[in-house]
Amino acid sequence: MKEINLSRPDIFFACVWLSVTILAYADLYYMGFDESVFVTSLITVNIASFFVAYKFVNYGMDKFPSLAQQRDVHLSQSQIDKLSLANFFLFLLWCFLFSFVVYKSGGVPILWRMAHINKSYTDFGVPTLSGFANMIRAFIFCLSIVLWLKVKEKRALVIAVILLTTSLLEFARANTIYLVLHGVAIILLLRPLRIKHIAAIAVVIPILVILFGIVEQIRTPNGSGGEAIQKYTSVLNKLPYGFTTTYLYLTTPVSNLYYAVNKGIVPNNFPYYTLQTVLPTILRDQIHVPNRYPIALRRESHNATTFYSPFIADYGIMVAGFLVFVIQFFVSWVHLQAMRGDIFYSLIYSPLFASIALSFFYNYFITLGVLLFPVITFGVRLYVIRSTKLTRVVRPHA
């Protein structure tokens, strides 16, 4: 049966940005949409540039085999044992970190809500430490899925379920979605999507959309801003609230981008917003920020601004497009390494895939969680190969 390689970053990027741009342009709540030929051109060019980058990198790796360090994904038993041990050790480390965060936060958001304690999900966490713990959790989640898919290790499956469950307890939907997308990347790399799966996905998506709205109403009983939008006439008002809030989350970042460019942006000519997310939160909070958001917002209640915004605010549209092109080259190289059988590049690709999926919402590419993910990955790789030799194979990429 025909397979669909949705793990390919160029195809996935095109699907994401065509979808959210069309939905934003449709303006189903008639709240106004500021058209901009500059933004439309930027998105169009970067969709095309991703296909060019992927093709070019693929050609280069075929022409110069030294660029592709190919390894067999069928790990030996000794390698599996090493990976499993590393996974369990990291899980114990994460358990300690998560327990400390829960202790310092005074519990978890879902229990606060059940006990009617006047605390929000935003009160959960310890600056910098929580981000590090989330990165560790994402890595363990991915490695656990690898171990389950490759050798059906039951302990790995249990660990993955525990990690996902604890994320749900935090009531931070963005963190949970980001975590799940890591796992989706691994699954798509190791188990390509088949046409027969489309029907199942078509059933699951509406259910997830409805749950998305239910979680929002539970965690913010006094309203989060989405309810106010329902005063506008829209076909979505006849559907469960989840469809309203999902539509707003998908479209308002793009709408904000169009709005800000139309209003006018004077570049800083300095990587002010670009490098903000590279700094640990504990240091970032000490830096004076003249504007909380990199670009002007149409509505304060919906303040996401896409992954383009920091680049545009610092350098303008032209340079922003070029920086995205550079990112596309790197992502293409990592994906092609993964497709050629390098299991460790599969792990590195997972946060990049998640970053593409949420690029309409935020610039995860330049966060510490993504930038340090290869460090922990190659740290585990070094541990695995210290006493075992990975099998090198020459495999044509799929």
Description:
The structure is a single chain. The chain is mostly helical and 398 residues long. The protein has one domain. It has 16 helices and 2 strands. Strands 1-2 form a two-stranded antiparallel sheet. The two termini are 15 Å apart.
Can you lay out the helices and strands and say which pair or pack?
Blueprint: E1 3-4, H1 9-26, H2 37-63, H3 77-105, H4 109-114, H5 129-151, H6 154-169, H7 173-190, E2 193-194, H8 197-219, H9 226-229, H10 241-263, H11 281-284, H12 309-315, H13 317-339, H14 343-357, H15 368-371, H16 373-385
Antiparallel strand pairs: 1-2
Helix pairs in contact: 1-2, 1-10, 2-13, 3-5, 3-16, 5-6, 5-7, 7-14, 8-10, 12-13, 13-14, 14-16
Identify the notable features of this structure and list them briefly.
single chain; 398 residues; mainly alpha; two-stranded antiparallel sheet; 64% helix
User: What is the element string, with H for helices and E for strands?
Assistant: EHHHHHHHEHHHHHHHHH
What is the number of strand segments?
2
Number of helices: 16
The total number of structural domains is 1
Q: State the secondary-structure class.
A: mainly alpha
Task: Give the strand order, joined by hyphens, for the main sheet.
Answer: 1-2
Q: How far do the termini sit from each other?
A: 15 Å
Strand content: under 5%
- The overall pLDDT average reads 86
Main beta sheet strand tally, sense and closure = 2 strands, antiparallel
TL;DR?
The chain has 398 residues and is an all-alpha fold.
